[in-house]
Amino acid sequence: MLFSAIVSLTMLGAILGLLLGVAARYLKVEGNPLVAEIEQLLPGSQCGQCGFAGCTGAAQALADGTAPAGLCPPGGRAVMQALAAKLGIEADLSGVEDNVPMMAEIKEEICIGCTRCFKVCPTDAIMGAAQQIHVVFREACTACGKCEEVCPTESVKLQPIPATLQSWHWPKPQQVAEGAAA
Amino acid sequence: MNPITHSPHAHAPVSIGKVMGTVLLALTPATLFGFWLYGWPAINLWAVSLIAAIVGEAFVLRWQQRAVRPALMDGSGILTAWLLAMSLPPFAPWWIAVLGSLFAVVVGKQIFGGLGQNVFNPAMAARVMLLISFPLEMTSWVGPLPLGSAHAPGLLDSLRVTFLSQPLDGMASASLLGHVKTEFTRGVGLDQALAGYYAPLSALWGSRAGSLGESAAVFILLGGVFLIARRIVTWHAPLAMLLGVAVPALLFNMIDANHYAGPLVHLLSGGVMLGAFFIITDPVTSPNTATGQFIFGLGCGLLTWIIRTWGGYPEGVAFAVMLMNAATPLIDQYVKPRIYGRDRKGAALPANKGS
Amino acid sequence: MKLFELRGGVHPEGRKDLSAGRHIRVLPLPKKLFVPLQQHIGAPATPLVNVGDKVLKGQLIALAQGAVSSSIHAPTSGVIAALGDFPAPHPSGLPVPTITIESDGEDKWIARDEAYDPFALTPEDIAARVGAAGIVGLGGATFPAALKLNLSRNSGVHTLIMNGGECEPYLTCDDRIMRERAGQIVEGIRLIAHAVAAKEILVGIEDNKPDAIAAMQAAAEGTPVKVVVMPSMYPMGSEKQIIQVLTGKEIPAGGRPADIGVLVHNVATAYAVQQAVCYGKPLISRIVTVSGGAIMTPCNVEALIGTPVQELIDFADGYEQPAARLVLGGPMMGQQFTHTGVPVVKGTSGVLALMQDEIGQAEPSPCIRCSTCVRACPIGLVPLEMAAHIRVSDLSGAVDLGLKDCIACGSCSYVCPAHIPLVHYFNYAKGDLAAQERTKLKQEATRKLAEARNERLARIERERAEAAARRKAAREAKERAKQEAAAKAAEEAA
């Protein structure tokens, strides 16, 4: 009785161990492709607002689990959700919800054409030359804010992108009254 | 400027309160009949159940700092307590009703997040809890003592029954299913067990021992038909449950009539009628497609019959419903309507010009 | 004719009797018209006029841009008073580029190109004339009609379905136009059929419009046009549903009616096509139902595109009682608006001023999973599950459940006993997903820009380093040569 129990459990252990060994051999994952995949999701403008050394550094930190999914301010909610989905973590959307899309805007009256802003712009979104007024391309601006920092006359400011009929959509319905306080 | 409201700008004249109200209305004939049949103790028990549910729910809502009035006014708590009261032995002591009602609305519903969030039918969860915790009180049935009849307890006596747990002497009786189970354990066959204990016609009219919801089978049926006619519920789940009980009962009864009760015995006893029309049609804990509801009902019926026939308990509706409640998310996962322009698997239909 | 079953659907109270009995009347010429540059699906038109220009009625004032767009014509003669932003007839109330025309009161037509034998025109010509007239689908979707004709002709269509369903409550503009202009509509239908070479022509009309059915049947006598009476049910007039009911076929998911050899047009569009092809009249006016419990005299008016909605309300003798809600279009899919200065556009089928009891909306309560919405959905979705996913911001979960197949008909919201704004959830989710998609595209573009810049900076750095290295090498070589020369000189000297 005792003997048969020992034998059967040993057999079971051996078979399962063998299975695990085979699985480990045939289902092996090569390297860790995660960092590269995460980097693909990030804006790639190396703006450094997350506090890491460029987007690669941020991707490494995300892969290590030392950074939250919402670390990328220019990426906003879309990047946050993509990262959370990739990493299989919960995205805390509460703080980002109000983050309206922004873009840099240059006040032409006080721009002195110093060219500092377009030298730092990571996406070449600012067009201009020395002693000339600079222009920002809405489509290329990631609202990283680097231009704002270097502008000597504070003529570059991040402004919310105005809503248009094309970009407008219905807001989320108010939560059901169930949650309302008494 | 008012905030802009999304379309549609027309709404059907329906509300949760109206839905619950219609269900309560459908329950009323059966309940009144039960009141007449079992007299004042049944009325007391019913009232205690409802009060306990309302007070308990209000307390929990206040505790969670949620709006008390709208949640109470939707009538769902009252319906739960009402259904529970209809499944209790009419002469049960008051604390059974209080405990059951509180368990139903607090543990069965509010802990899950309130109306619409619970996994199990609150009334059935409470009944199962009571049955396994207080088997004696939950199986002490009495025969019918219609109001105004010779032995019927008066108002004062009834208060003693309900609140002081003083049983009426010599009135104890067993429900049909309980009786059959007991007789089986003594090795008595069905033909003898049922003789003098069961007559289909009187079962239909409810003049036998049982809960309010058991006795008034015909009124429950009428209420159910009313609900179907008013489109509050669909016929799928109720019919499937009745079939789920009746078909195996018929088959096995044909094989061995002395050991397996026939379909009529099963349909008209215990909680099958109440279950089929009022319990498993609870939208919160049942699947949300017609096919899913049919499967759900069939499962409830089949499990009920299995538990009754081979299980340890004489009655199985509550267990069957809870088991199928647990299967509801699974059913909803796999039974979905086919989407327009797609096949059952969700792939787009082929472009077919035809002529 | 055998009809096929419509899945789901609801029976909202029709309330069509308010305005159905009234003849179409032409609205008096407004002083100012506000003509938005985008009244259709696709790209906005580009203005061809400047402030101060004089224009004639029917003159092209903005040209279609790109593949999906539509041209816009002056609804009356007058002077261009402004080119600028004006509130759109849209729930957002956002300003859109609009041409403002000050009417000169003469309403003088531009010279028109009339076709004496329209059926001698080639299908391409018909489509070209329809396109030049700026005709869009008048049922509400406002898809450019010429584009639809060309697409259908190219992919081959055997059945033309004319949508006279008008399943939205209150609206009677299609009902009235079928009663009063059946002859022109039938001619327009035959022109469309000619343009796409359709063999079978069906006009589907709901059975709550017996007069329109009779008028259309009389007008279709002796033509290949067949009038089919359909049961009244919402959303019978939706493209997918009318095809299903009349042919029993379904448009494949993500596809177009042409995929199953069908083309669907609205009956009012057929009238516009007839006017454009036969008389060279562009689409500058449309029939609008002015109705609702708060309107004094509900009616149908023929209004010029660009007419402020307030003028229509005034024409209906104003309000009987203060309106609880103003709606453009029907109550099921129409859009609420607050500013009555917004103009009538090509897609405006109705102006409704509704009372609170007509709306019947209450505070939402928790979902009890009653699955009334599942039974009501004409597409076969599970609205309650989709909304539950969206409520917790799981948009991709909702997409997996079929969010993209939702036609936003509002049947689920209509029947919900908990008054949950289901279709609002779905439109929010669709809009948010589209915004996310746009953001993603932008991010891909900016990433490329950033990479290009990094590469450029690296290249400049490299080139600078190389140049420095070259200079250094040259300097060293020079020095070496100098040294060598010095050594040589020393050697020679020695």
Account of the protein in words:
The complex is a heterotrimer of chains A (182), B (355) and C (494). Helices cover 36% and strands 8% of the residues of chain A. Chain A has 182 residues and is mainly alpha-helical. In chain A, helix 2 packs across helix 3 (54-64). Chain A is elongated, with a radius of gyration of 26 Å. The longest helix of chain B is centred in the N-terminal third of the chain and has 24 residues, at 40-63. Chain B has one domain (16-334). In chain B, 53% of the residues are buried. Chain C has a domain at 17-27 and 117-315: NADH-ubiquinone oxidoreductase 51kDa subunit (Rossmann fold, 3-Layer(aba) Sandwich). The longest helix of chain C is centred in the C-terminal third of the chain and has 72 residues, at 422-493. Chain C is elongated. Classes of the chains: A mainly alpha (182), B mainly alpha (355), C alpha/beta (494). At the B-C interface, helix 1 of B face strand 16, helix 11, helix 14 and helix 15 of C.
